[in-house]
Specification:
The complex is a heterodimer. Chain A is about 70% helix and about 0% strand. Chain A contains nine helices and no strands. Chain A has helices at about 1-15, 20-45, 50-65, 75-95, 105, 125-130, 135-145, 150-155, 160-180. In chain A, helix 3 (about 50-65) crosses helix 9 (about 160-180) and helix 7 packs across helix 9. Chain A starts with a helix and ends with a helix. Chain B is mainly alpha-helical. In chain B, helix 6 (about 95-110) runs antiparallel to helix 10. Chain B is built from ten helices and no strands. The two termini of chain B are about 20 Å apart. Classes of the chains: A mainly alpha, B mainly alpha. The interface between A and B is large, with 46 and 29 residues.
Protein backbone atom coordinates (compact mmCIF):
# COMPACT_ATOMS: atom_id res chain seq x y z
CA UNK A 1 0.00 0.00 0.00
CA UNK A 2 2.88 2.34 0.81
CA UNK A 3 4.33 1.54 -2.58
CA UNK A 4 1.06 2.43 -4.26
CA UNK A 5 0.92 5.74 -2.42
CA UNK A 6 4.53 6.58 -3.27
CA UNK A 7 3.69 5.93 -6.89
CA UNK A 8 0.75 8.35 -6.67
CA UNK A 9 3.03 11.01 -5.19
CA UNK A 10 5.53 10.57 -8.02
CA UNK A 11 2.78 10.70 -10.65
CA UNK A 12 1.31 13.87 -9.17
CA UNK A 13 4.71 15.53 -9.08
CA UNK A 14 5.20 14.69 -12.77
CA UNK A 15 1.69 15.91 -13.53
CA UNK A 16 2.34 19.26 -11.90
CA UNK A 17 5.56 19.67 -13.85
CA UNK A 18 3.50 19.32 -17.03
CA UNK A 19 3.26 15.59 -17.79
CA UNK A 20 -0.37 15.13 -18.95
CA UNK A 21 0.02 11.35 -19.38
CA UNK A 22 1.20 10.97 -15.78
CA UNK A 23 -1.81 12.96 -14.65
CA UNK A 24 -4.12 10.73 -16.65
CA UNK A 25 -2.52 7.64 -15.11
CA UNK A 26 -2.81 9.06 -11.62
CA UNK A 27 -6.52 9.83 -11.99
CA UNK A 28 -7.06 6.35 -13.43
CA UNK A 29 -5.18 4.79 -10.52
CA UNK A 30 -7.02 6.60 -7.73
CA UNK A 31 -10.53 6.13 -9.16
CA UNK A 32 -11.11 2.49 -8.07
CA UNK A 33 -9.90 3.32 -4.57
CA UNK A 34 -12.27 6.28 -4.38
CA UNK A 35 -15.09 4.19 -5.80
CA UNK A 36 -14.66 1.42 -3.23
CA UNK A 37 -14.57 3.94 -0.39
CA UNK A 38 -17.61 5.84 -1.67
CA UNK A 39 -19.55 2.59 -1.84
CA UNK A 40 -18.56 1.64 1.66
CA UNK A 41 -19.59 5.08 2.94
CA UNK A 42 -22.97 4.88 1.20
CA UNK A 43 -23.58 1.34 2.39
CA UNK A 44 -22.82 2.27 5.96
CA UNK A 45 -25.25 5.20 5.74
CA UNK A 46 -27.91 2.85 4.43
CA UNK A 47 -27.90 4.51 1.02
CA UNK A 48 -28.00 2.73 -2.35
CA UNK A 49 -24.43 2.21 -3.54
CA UNK A 50 -25.33 2.93 -7.16
CA UNK A 51 -24.91 6.64 -6.42
CA UNK A 52 -21.22 6.15 -5.75
CA UNK A 53 -20.16 7.23 -9.23
CA UNK A 54 -21.53 10.76 -8.68
CA UNK A 55 -19.40 11.02 -5.54
CA UNK A 56 -16.32 9.70 -7.40
CA UNK A 57 -16.75 12.36 -10.08
CA UNK A 58 -17.25 15.03 -7.43
CA UNK A 59 -13.98 14.03 -5.79
CA UNK A 60 -12.09 13.94 -9.10
CA UNK A 61 -13.27 17.46 -9.97
CA UNK A 62 -12.18 18.75 -6.56
CA UNK A 63 -8.80 17.03 -6.86
CA UNK A 64 -8.35 18.73 -10.22
CA UNK A 65 -9.43 22.23 -9.23
CA UNK A 66 -7.71 22.27 -5.84
CA UNK A 67 -4.45 20.62 -6.77
CA UNK A 68 -2.43 23.75 -6.06
CA UNK A 69 -3.23 23.23 -2.36
CA UNK A 70 -1.15 20.05 -2.41
CA UNK A 71 2.35 20.63 -1.10
CA UNK A 72 4.63 18.87 -3.58
CA UNK A 73 7.04 17.90 -0.81
CA UNK A 74 4.30 16.04 1.12
CA UNK A 75 2.87 12.59 0.33
CA UNK A 76 -0.16 12.73 -1.98
CA UNK A 77 -2.47 10.17 -0.33
CA UNK A 78 -3.34 12.08 2.89
CA UNK A 79 -4.24 15.13 0.80
CA UNK A 80 -6.37 13.03 -1.53
CA UNK A 81 -8.16 11.24 1.29
CA UNK A 82 -8.89 14.54 3.04
CA UNK A 83 -10.62 15.84 -0.09
CA UNK A 84 -12.42 12.54 -0.65
CA UNK A 85 -13.64 12.41 2.92
CA UNK A 86 -14.93 15.98 2.71
CA UNK A 87 -16.82 15.23 -0.50
CA UNK A 88 -18.28 12.00 0.84
CA UNK A 89 -19.54 13.74 3.99
CA UNK A 90 -21.03 16.46 1.78
CA UNK A 91 -22.80 13.91 -0.36
CA UNK A 92 -24.24 12.05 2.62
CA UNK A 93 -25.33 15.30 4.23
CA UNK A 94 -27.10 16.28 1.05
CA UNK A 95 -29.00 13.02 1.30
CA UNK A 96 -30.01 13.98 4.79
CA UNK A 97 -27.52 11.87 6.71
CA UNK A 98 -25.01 13.12 9.20
CA UNK A 99 -22.41 10.51 9.47
CA UNK A 100 -18.88 10.16 10.62
CA UNK A 101 -16.71 9.05 7.75
CA UNK A 102 -13.62 7.19 8.76
CA UNK A 103 -10.50 8.25 6.90
CA UNK A 104 -9.34 4.64 7.00
CA UNK A 105 -12.17 3.88 4.58
CA UNK A 106 -9.89 5.31 1.93
CA UNK A 107 -6.54 4.20 3.17
CA UNK A 108 -7.68 0.61 3.69
CA UNK A 109 -8.80 -0.08 0.16
CA UNK A 110 -6.67 -2.88 -1.16
CA UNK A 111 -4.75 -2.37 -4.39
CA UNK A 112 -6.32 -5.51 -5.88
CA UNK A 113 -9.84 -4.26 -5.27
CA UNK A 114 -11.03 -2.71 -8.53
CA UNK A 115 -14.80 -2.36 -8.58
CA UNK A 116 -16.34 -1.34 -11.88
CA UNK A 117 -18.81 1.53 -11.98
CA UNK A 118 -22.35 0.27 -11.30
CA UNK A 119 -24.70 2.89 -12.66
CA UNK A 120 -23.96 5.67 -15.06
CA UNK A 121 -23.55 8.88 -13.08
CA UNK A 122 -26.21 11.50 -13.69
CA UNK A 123 -25.25 14.61 -11.77
CA UNK A 124 -22.30 15.84 -13.83
CA UNK A 125 -24.15 15.08 -17.05
CA UNK A 126 -27.22 16.99 -15.85
CA UNK A 127 -25.20 20.05 -14.83
CA UNK A 128 -23.31 19.94 -18.11
CA UNK A 129 -26.55 20.82 -19.91
CA UNK A 130 -26.87 23.97 -17.79
CA UNK A 131 -23.49 25.42 -18.86
CA UNK A 132 -23.12 28.28 -21.34
CA UNK A 133 -23.19 26.92 -24.90
CA UNK A 134 -19.51 27.50 -25.68
CA UNK A 135 -18.25 25.77 -22.53
CA UNK A 136 -20.70 22.91 -22.99
CA UNK A 137 -19.70 22.35 -26.62
CA UNK A 138 -15.99 22.31 -25.76
CA UNK A 139 -16.51 19.95 -22.82
CA UNK A 140 -18.72 17.64 -24.89
CA UNK A 141 -16.21 17.58 -27.70
CA UNK A 142 -13.24 16.75 -25.46
CA UNK A 143 -15.02 14.46 -22.98
CA UNK A 144 -17.64 12.62 -24.96
CA UNK A 145 -16.30 12.70 -28.52
CA UNK A 146 -12.70 12.47 -27.21
CA UNK A 147 -11.53 15.08 -29.69
CA UNK A 148 -8.14 16.65 -28.95
CA UNK A 149 -7.84 20.31 -27.99
CA UNK A 150 -6.32 21.02 -31.39
CA UNK A 151 -9.17 19.37 -33.33
CA UNK A 152 -11.77 20.92 -31.06
CA UNK A 153 -10.30 24.32 -31.87
CA UNK A 154 -10.56 23.57 -35.59
CA UNK A 155 -14.11 22.23 -35.23
CA UNK A 156 -15.46 25.38 -33.56
CA UNK A 157 -13.02 27.73 -35.36
CA UNK A 158 -11.55 28.86 -32.06
CA UNK A 159 -7.91 29.30 -31.09
CA UNK A 160 -6.38 26.54 -28.98
CA UNK A 161 -5.96 29.06 -26.17
CA UNK A 162 -9.67 29.87 -26.28
CA UNK A 163 -10.51 26.15 -26.15
CA UNK A 164 -8.29 25.75 -23.09
CA UNK A 165 -9.95 28.70 -21.37
CA UNK A 166 -13.45 27.41 -22.17
CA UNK A 167 -12.46 23.94 -20.96
CA UNK A 168 -11.15 25.18 -17.64
CA UNK A 169 -14.05 27.60 -17.08
CA UNK A 170 -16.47 24.82 -17.97
CA UNK A 171 -14.96 22.48 -15.36
CA UNK A 172 -14.93 25.23 -12.75
CA UNK A 173 -18.56 26.23 -13.30
CA UNK A 174 -19.62 22.60 -13.42
CA UNK A 175 -18.06 22.14 -9.99
CA UNK A 176 -19.70 25.32 -8.68
CA UNK A 177 -23.10 24.11 -9.89
CA UNK A 178 -22.59 20.73 -8.23
CA UNK A 179 -21.63 22.43 -4.99
CA UNK A 180 -24.51 24.91 -4.90
CA UNK A 181 -27.27 22.64 -6.16
CA UNK B 1 -20.40 11.76 -18.97
CA UNK B 2 -18.84 8.59 -17.58
CA UNK B 3 -15.85 8.67 -15.27
CA UNK B 4 -13.31 7.72 -17.94
CA UNK B 5 -14.49 10.61 -20.06
CA UNK B 6 -14.26 12.96 -17.09
CA UNK B 7 -10.72 11.78 -16.36
CA UNK B 8 -9.71 12.38 -19.97
CA UNK B 9 -11.16 15.88 -19.77
CA UNK B 10 -9.36 16.70 -16.53
CA UNK B 11 -6.07 15.46 -18.00
CA UNK B 12 -6.64 17.72 -21.01
CA UNK B 13 -6.89 20.67 -18.58
CA UNK B 14 -3.60 19.77 -16.85
CA UNK B 15 -1.86 22.75 -18.48
CA UNK B 16 -3.99 25.16 -16.46
CA UNK B 17 -1.94 26.62 -13.64
CA UNK B 18 -3.86 28.51 -10.99
CA UNK B 19 -2.26 31.46 -9.25
CA UNK B 20 -0.65 30.54 -5.90
CA UNK B 21 -3.14 31.21 -3.10
CA UNK B 22 -0.71 33.44 -1.19
CA UNK B 23 -0.50 35.72 -4.22
CA UNK B 24 -4.28 35.64 -4.74
CA UNK B 25 -4.81 36.60 -1.08
CA UNK B 26 -2.29 39.42 -1.27
CA UNK B 27 -3.82 40.87 -4.43
CA UNK B 28 -7.35 40.67 -3.02
CA UNK B 29 -6.24 42.44 0.18
CA UNK B 30 -4.44 45.14 -1.83
CA UNK B 31 -7.61 45.69 -3.84
CA UNK B 32 -9.71 46.00 -0.67
CA UNK B 33 -7.27 48.18 1.29
CA UNK B 34 -8.18 51.51 -0.41
CA UNK B 35 -11.81 51.11 0.67
CA UNK B 36 -10.78 50.62 4.30
CA UNK B 37 -8.34 53.54 4.13
CA UNK B 38 -11.06 55.71 2.64
CA UNK B 39 -13.33 54.93 5.60
CA UNK B 40 -10.43 55.74 7.93
CA UNK B 41 -9.45 59.08 6.43
CA UNK B 42 -13.02 60.21 5.79
CA UNK B 43 -14.31 59.40 9.28
CA UNK B 44 -11.32 59.27 11.64
CA UNK B 45 -7.83 60.34 10.56
CA UNK B 46 -4.55 60.06 12.43
CA UNK B 47 -4.54 61.56 15.93
CA UNK B 48 -3.07 65.08 16.00
CA UNK B 49 -0.39 64.35 18.61
CA UNK B 50 0.98 61.34 16.75
CA UNK B 51 4.57 62.65 16.77
CA UNK B 52 4.70 62.80 20.57
CA UNK B 53 2.65 59.64 20.96
CA UNK B 54 5.32 57.72 19.10
CA UNK B 55 7.64 58.20 22.07
CA UNK B 56 5.14 56.40 24.31
CA UNK B 57 6.00 52.69 24.31
CA UNK B 58 2.36 51.78 24.95
CA UNK B 59 1.30 53.57 21.77
CA UNK B 60 3.87 51.54 19.82
CA UNK B 61 2.80 48.34 21.55
CA UNK B 62 -0.67 48.64 20.02
CA UNK B 63 0.93 48.19 16.62
CA UNK B 64 2.97 45.25 17.83
CA UNK B 65 -0.23 43.52 18.96
CA UNK B 66 -2.30 44.27 15.87
CA UNK B 67 0.49 43.48 13.41
CA UNK B 68 1.24 40.24 15.23
CA UNK B 69 -2.44 39.35 14.94
CA UNK B 70 -2.51 40.17 11.21
CA UNK B 71 0.71 38.29 10.45
CA UNK B 72 -0.12 35.15 12.42
CA UNK B 73 -3.67 35.07 11.01
CA UNK B 74 -2.34 35.39 7.45
CA UNK B 75 0.02 32.46 8.05
CA UNK B 76 -2.71 30.33 9.64
CA UNK B 77 -5.20 31.26 6.88
CA UNK B 78 -2.82 30.05 4.22
CA UNK B 79 -2.14 26.87 6.16
CA UNK B 80 -5.88 26.19 6.45
CA UNK B 81 -6.36 26.36 2.67
CA UNK B 82 -5.01 22.80 2.57
CA UNK B 83 -7.68 20.12 2.88
CA UNK B 84 -5.74 18.00 5.37
CA UNK B 85 -4.75 20.93 7.60
CA UNK B 86 -6.26 21.78 10.97
CA UNK B 87 -5.66 24.38 13.67
CA UNK B 88 -3.77 21.79 15.67
CA UNK B 89 -0.37 22.34 14.08
CA UNK B 90 -0.21 26.12 13.64
CA UNK B 91 -3.21 27.41 15.60
CA UNK B 92 -1.02 28.42 18.53
CA UNK B 93 0.48 31.15 16.34
CA UNK B 94 -2.73 33.05 16.99
CA UNK B 95 -1.76 33.21 20.67
CA UNK B 96 1.30 35.37 19.89
CA UNK B 97 -0.64 38.68 19.84
CA UNK B 98 -2.43 37.64 23.05
CA UNK B 99 0.95 36.93 24.63
CA UNK B 100 2.28 40.36 23.68
CA UNK B 101 -0.87 41.91 25.15
CA UNK B 102 -0.51 40.04 28.44
CA UNK B 103 3.14 41.12 28.67
CA UNK B 104 2.11 44.72 27.99
CA UNK B 105 -0.58 44.64 30.67
CA UNK B 106 1.82 43.31 33.26
CA UNK B 107 4.37 45.93 32.19
CA UNK B 108 1.83 48.69 32.70
CA UNK B 109 0.75 47.26 36.06
CA UNK B 110 4.30 47.55 37.35
CA UNK B 111 4.55 51.23 36.48
CA UNK B 112 3.22 54.04 38.66
CA UNK B 113 -0.06 55.31 37.15
CA UNK B 114 -1.80 58.65 37.45
CA UNK B 115 -5.17 57.37 36.24
CA UNK B 116 -7.06 54.52 37.92
CA UNK B 117 -7.25 51.15 36.23
CA UNK B 118 -10.94 51.29 35.33
CA UNK B 119 -10.53 54.73 33.72
CA UNK B 120 -7.73 53.38 31.56
CA UNK B 121 -9.75 50.31 30.66
CA UNK B 122 -12.89 52.21 29.70
CA UNK B 123 -10.98 54.97 27.93
CA UNK B 124 -12.60 57.58 25.70
CA UNK B 125 -12.87 55.82 22.37
CA UNK B 126 -14.53 52.52 23.15
CA UNK B 127 -17.54 53.12 20.90
CA UNK B 128 -15.41 54.49 18.05
CA UNK B 129 -13.17 51.44 18.39
CA UNK B 130 -16.09 49.02 18.34
CA UNK B 131 -17.57 50.54 15.18
CA UNK B 132 -14.44 51.62 13.29
CA UNK B 133 -12.57 48.31 13.46
CA UNK B 134 -15.50 46.20 12.16
CA UNK B 135 -16.35 48.80 9.49
CA UNK B 136 -12.77 48.99 8.23
CA UNK B 137 -12.42 45.21 8.46
CA UNK B 138 -15.39 44.39 6.30
CA UNK B 139 -13.88 45.28 2.89
CA UNK B 140 -10.69 43.46 3.88
CA UNK B 141 -12.69 40.41 5.00
CA UNK B 142 -14.54 40.25 1.70
CA UNK B 143 -11.19 40.52 -0.11
CA UNK B 144 -9.58 37.86 2.07
CA UNK B 145 -12.45 35.42 1.52
CA UNK B 146 -12.28 36.06 -2.21
CA UNK B 147 -8.56 35.31 -2.25
CA UNK B 148 -8.92 32.22 -0.06
CA UNK B 149 -11.73 30.78 -2.19
CA UNK B 150 -9.14 28.95 -4.26
CA UNK B 151 -8.26 26.91 -1.21
CA UNK B 152 -9.87 23.73 0.08
CA UNK B 153 -10.34 24.16 3.85
CA UNK B 154 -11.64 21.17 5.79
CA UNK B 155 -13.70 23.50 7.98
CA UNK B 156 -14.82 26.57 6.04
CA UNK B 157 -16.27 28.33 9.10
CA UNK B 158 -12.96 28.05 10.98
CA UNK B 159 -11.05 29.30 7.95
CA UNK B 160 -13.55 32.17 7.67
CA UNK B 161 -13.05 33.10 11.34
CA UNK B 162 -9.28 33.23 10.84
CA UNK B 163 -9.84 35.41 7.76
CA UNK B 164 -11.85 37.64 10.11
CA UNK B 165 -8.91 37.81 12.54
CA UNK B 166 -6.61 38.71 9.67
CA UNK B 167 -8.84 41.58 8.50
CA UNK B 168 -9.42 42.82 12.05
CA UNK B 169 -5.66 42.79 12.65
CA UNK B 170 -5.01 44.90 9.57
CA UNK B 171 -7.91 47.29 10.27
CA UNK B 172 -6.90 47.68 13.93
CA UNK B 173 -3.34 48.53 12.88
CA UNK B 174 -4.63 51.54 10.97
CA UNK B 175 -7.23 52.40 13.61
CA UNK B 176 -4.58 52.38 16.36
CA UNK B 177 -3.03 55.52 14.86
CA UNK B 178 -6.31 57.37 15.46
CA UNK B 179 -7.10 56.04 18.90
CA UNK B 180 -5.81 58.12 21.84
CA UNK B 181 -6.30 55.29 24.34
CA UNK B 182 -2.94 53.58 24.61
CA UNK B 183 -3.42 51.49 27.74
CA UNK B 184 -3.00 47.76 27.03
CA UNK B 185 -6.08 47.29 29.22
CA UNK B 186 -8.12 49.29 26.72
CA UNK B 187 -6.65 47.32 23.83
CA UNK B 188 -7.30 44.00 25.53
CA UNK B 189 -10.93 44.91 26.13
CA UNK B 190 -12.21 46.86 23.16
CA UNK B 191 -9.90 45.80 20.36
CA UNK B 192 -10.51 42.21 21.37
CA UNK B 193 -14.29 42.67 21.37
CA UNK B 194 -14.18 44.35 17.95
CA UNK B 195 -11.95 41.55 16.66
CA UNK B 196 -14.34 38.90 18.01
CA UNK B 197 -17.22 40.53 16.14
CA UNK B 198 -15.26 40.46 12.88
CA UNK B 199 -14.17 36.86 13.48
CA UNK B 200 -17.80 35.80 13.99
CA UNK B 201 -18.88 37.55 10.80
CA UNK B 202 -15.95 35.86 9.06
CA UNK B 203 -17.07 32.44 10.34
CA UNK B 204 -20.62 33.00 9.06
CA UNK B 205 -19.46 34.24 5.67
CA UNK B 206 -16.70 31.66 5.38
CA UNK B 207 -19.06 28.76 6.04
CA UNK B 208 -20.67 29.56 2.70
CA UNK B 209 -17.94 31.27 0.71
CA UNK B 210 -15.10 28.85 1.46
CA UNK B 211 -16.93 25.59 0.82
CA UNK B 212 -15.45 23.71 -2.07
Amino acid sequence: MREREDEWTDLMRSAISGDDAAYHRLLKAITPVLRAAARRGLARAGQPVDQSEDIVQDILLAVHLKRQTWDTSAPFAPWLFAIARNKLIDALRRRGRRIFVNIDDFAETLPGETPEPTASPGEVTAQLQALPARQRDVLQSIAVDSTSIKDTAAKFSMTEGAVRVALHRGLASLTAKLRDR
Amino acid sequence: MDTDQLIRTLAADNAYRPRPIGLALMMALLAAAPVSLLIFFAELGVRPDVMTAMHNPFFDLKFAVTLALAASAIAVSLHLTRPEASLRSFGWWLLIPAGILVAAISGEMMMPQRTPMMTRLIGKNSMACMTAIPAMSLPLLVGALYGLRQGAPARPAVAGAVAGLLSAGLAATVYASHCTDDSPLFVATWYTLATAIVASVGALMGARALRY
